[in-house]
Amino acid sequence: MVAAGSSNAVVIFSDGTFVVASPPDVEPADLIAALLAARPFLESHHGKAYETLDQYISSDKETQRMARLENIMGAIRNNLPQIPELKDELRRFLDDKER
């Protein structure tokens, strides 16, 4: 059985062992995509590993979300001195979103 991600393939053997065929410069996201594509065939053999992968994916998404928040807050802090009306505009924006 072969499951494929965007640029990788996972060759799955009947005993649940597998090998990932990928280019030498594989990106982590591509490797994860290949493992997720193989999930229906491998999870019964490697359930704990998929639980760990799910936790990693969830943690990574939260880290990315927090990084975006920090970038936005940094942009606001850096621009407040140069754009005095930014504070009022942000208040209006937030008030409109709460309605």
Q: In what order do the strands lie side by side in the largest sheet?
A: 1-2-3
Low-confidence regions: none
Total number of helical segments?
A: 4
Radius of gyration: 22 Å
How much helical structure, as a percent, in the residues? Answer: 55-70%
Name the structural class: mainly alpha
Alpha-carbon distance between the two ends: 53 Å
Overall average pLDDT? 92
Query: How would you describe the shape?
Result: elongated
Order of SSEs, N→C? EEEHHHH
Biggest sheet, open or closed, and with what strands and sense? 3 strands, antiparallel
Provide structural commentary.
By secondary structure, this protein is mainly alpha-helical. The chain has 2 domains: 1-45, no CATH class; 46-99. Helix content is 61%, strand content 11%. The protein has 4 helices and 3 strands, in the order βββαααα. The protein has a 3-stranded antiparallel beta sheet. A hairpin with a 4-residue loop joins strand 1 (2-4) and strand 2 (9-12). The longest helix has 33 residues, at 47-79.
